[in-house]
Every structure is written in C-alpha cells, then in structure tokens.
Amino acid sequence: MTIADSKAKPPTPRERARSQMVADIVRLGREHLARHGAAALSLRAVARDVGVVSSAVYRYVESRDELLTLLLIDGYNELGDHVDAAVDAIPETDYAGRFKALGLAVRTWALREPASYALLFGSPVPGYQAPGERTTVPGTRVILRLVGILDAAYRSGALAPQHGPAVVIPPGLAADMEAVRAELGLAADDEFLARGVLVWTSLFGAVSFEVFGQYGADTFVAREELFEHHLSVLQGLAGLCEGH
Amino acid sequence: MTIADSKAKPPTPRERARSQMVADIVRLGREHLARHGAAALSLRAVARDVGVVSSAVYRYVESRDELLTLLLIDGYNELGDHVDAAVDAIPETDYAGRFKALGLAVRTWALREPASYALLFGSPVPGYQAPGERTTVPGTRVILRLVGILDAAYRSGALAPQHGPAVVIPPGLAADMEAVRAELGLAADDEFLARGVLVWTSLFGAVSFEVFGQYGADTFVAREELFEHHLSVLQGLAGLCEGH
DNA sequence: CAACAAAGGAGAGCACTGCTCTTGACTTTC
DNA sequence: GAAAGTCAAGAGCAGTGCTCTCCTTTGTTG
After folding, report:
1. Is there a contact between B222 and A173 if contact means CB atoms under 8 Å apart?
2. CA distance A146 to chain B (A)
3. How many CA atoms, within 13 angstroms, populate the side-chain half-sphere of residue B11?
4. Which end of chain A has the least Cβ crowding within 10 Å, N or C?
5. Distance of alpha carbon A131 from alpha carbon B235, whole angstroms
6. Could you give all domains of chain B from N- to C-terminal order, each with its CATH number?
7. How does pLDDT run across B109-123, given as a tens digit for each residue?
C-alpha cells in the first residue's frame, strides 16, 4: 500500500519474491481448500507444500483468517470474471439471453469449484468475520451484474407486466426498495425489484442445493435440464420474455 | 437394538443413566454448536461441560462425526416437528395457508437456530459424510410435507393452471419426474412437479441468504416483509391461489 | 453372600492444529 | 564496511481427536 504510492520504482527483487510467495500461498491454499474444505484449511499444511516451515508463512499472511480472506476475494473475483465473460458473450439487448448466461455461469463455476463456492455462499466459517471493506466490492459483482441486466431490460420496456395475482408491497419493504433504487440508480418499480431479489435468492438456492447435495444422491439424474427449467421459470418471474 | 427386542424389561438404572448421559452430551453439543458453529464443535469441550474427562465420552459417542450425526438427526427432527405443528394448525384444505405456514415455520426455526440450520442446509462439513440410512428419513420430513400439501391441492383441483409462457419439460427431466411421482405416489403432472422443486429450492435459498448473511448488513430492514412477499410469489408459482 | 464379568471414569500419550517468540543468517542500504 | 531490515528455522504453548491402559464401580450369577 504505502510502498506503492511513495515511490513508483520498479519492484525490487525482494518485493517480487515476496508477492510471488504470497501468490504461491494463495494458490496452494486454494488447492487445499478444494481438497479438504474451508474448515480443514491448515496453514501448516500449506506451509509444508510451499516448502517452508510453518512459522515462516506468518511473514506473509497475518493469520489463518487472513488467508481465508484472500481466498474469499480470490473466489469472488474468479466467479465475477467467469460470469462477466459469459454475459458479455451475449448481445447487450438480449436481456433474457444474458440472464440465462449469468445463471448458467454461476452453476458451472459452482460445480467446478464446490469448496470455493461453499466458502462464498455456504455456512459462515465459525469465528470468522469477513472484513467488509475488502470483500464487499468483489462480493457484489454478480448481483450487481444481475441487477444491471434486469434494470436495463426495464428501461428498454422489455420487462413484461407481471403474470399472476398482484402481490402487495408493504410500506417497510417499499422503503427498502426505494433505498436500493436510490443507491444503485435504478429505474425499476418496487414490484420488479422485489421479484428480482427473489430471482436472485432462488438462483443461488438452486445452485446451493445441487452443490451441497441437498437433492438425494440419485433423485435427479438430469440436473442440468432441471436447472435450465428453473432458469426459464425464473426468467418469466423476473418479467423477461424470450426474444427480447 | 438387540437389548430392546430380546427382552421387553423396563430399563435398568444403568441403561437409564446411559441414555441420560447421551442426552446430556447431545444437549450440550447443541449449545456448543449454537455458540461456536459446527466446525468448532469440540468433543473435549463438551466433555468438560458434561463434567467428565475427555476420553470418557467415547464410551457413549463413537467419534466426533457420530456426535455430528446425532445433532443432525436432532436438528432435522426439531425442524420437522416445528413445521408439522405450524402446518397442522391450518385447515387441511387451506392449501395456500398451509404452504405459507410451512415456509414461515422454516424461516422462524432457521433464524432461531442458525447453527443447526447451517449444519443441515449449509456447506457440508469437510470429511464428514452423513450416514444416509439414519438421516434420510428425518431429513426428508419437510420436503415430503411440502410435496404432500401441493399434491393434495393438485388432486382437489385447487392448483390453478400456470401463468406465463409454457416451459417445455425435456425428456430426461420428465423421466426424473416420473420416477419421483411413482416413488411418492403423486398425481401432479411434470410441469407442477418441476415448479414444486423450484419452489422448494427457492424457499430454502431465501432462508439461507438471510441466515448466512448474504444480504448486506443493512440492505434490507423489513426482512420479514421481504420473506412474506417471496412466499406469496412462490405460492403463485406453485399454482396455489389465495382462498383455495 | 461372595465371586466374577461388564461398564465406565481417569489419565497418559500420540499426532495434529494455530500462533508466538527467539535465534541466527542473509540482503539491502548508507 | 557497518547498520538496518528481512526472513527462515526451531522451540514452545494451548488446544484438538482419538487410543490405550489402569482402576473403580456396578450388576449378575453361582
């Protein structure tokens, strides 16, 4: 931090070695995370893999929680990159297509990196509190992207009026929605916003069920078809029509 | 097992003491779980609280994983009882009312017992595999109850035809649905079944987001209103109309 | 009632964890 | 070349799951 802005010098060999070391620790930490899960993440084991004695890693990483934070940010950004790439591959005005691409990208990444997904969206690690000032920005990339797609669709008039019976928005909820709308500069009305929140939670609920094995071992064979069906229904729930 | 069916004698003092001890261990284990989380559940700490040396608890509980299994079953049954009580308080033919009661009961219990909820529905504990033969029955109580409500509504003709654009059910998914229908003796067609699965995952997705703190700390103030709104939308998604 | 077997508690011990502190060697800078 | 900064290594502390042995308590049986 202070080193970077005090002098714009090229990094000294020592600094390069240091950041290389931190990168190695994060990389091997990710491997351990993938193999043994977050709760079993052991700094000592990582140290052994790095080829250094356990106490030495404390020169680079303050604590086990610090390593968790690094892995958390790493995971959020990887998921964010993955989602961004998938969404950007779809034309900007194909809102339904972008929505589906986002959902499929989340699922694909989650199934490929179940341990990282569990760290990001599973039960909180006991005794660990993520430092908000470092994790909120990467941690909100996906939801902001989703909100962006839905609000752009709303502005363009591509959001169909909702089907089904009208659902009242009570005043407290309306106030929350107003705050969200103001903070993110959105146009969509309360009804669409509230449904957007439901679509958001439902998307991650479906992915979590699959990744965390809440479906029985062999209840659903065609899981991809099931998920795509869910995405289609959620798309309708959000108000997005095919072809718009 | 063998004791119980070989002789129907009343339990000896020793047996009573034993089951009392196991009950104490589970009870204090639950407290530790609630305070420190699943990954930090320590047999030694529980032993201290029980007032016995650490090695002694292994006379009653085979291992830490065994204790986790006991807590898992305990949690499933408590959630199941809670949900059953809430649903049973609503007239049998008020399908929409029963659905909402089920959803609210899940949320209430989850917020009251976040650690237990995390154990049941959060990221799997690394290295721990729940023994299916002991956990599937209590673990499926809520979903079976939900399926029961929806299928009863379907049979009675109370399920409205779906709104929105028709969504195709691909053959693989149809086969899964047929298997589920056969195994549970259901009447509902593929479309309703698939939507029922989505309602199921969405319900727990919404609860998990709240319990696991995925919403920001202060994004939503009126969380109960938000959840009830979600329930209303999900109710419509399932096909349940108000008043039926 | 006494002898015997089963059950349970206590303690030591092993291998592991996160983390701290000190020691000694190395590198950079003045 | 000396001073300052950096870092690896090792010992050590308190905690963990779990096993083993020893010894007392309990219940059953001859």
Report:
1. yes
2. 15
3. 9
4. N
5. 37
6. 1-61 (1.10.10), 74-238 (1.10.357.10)
7. 999 999 999 999 998
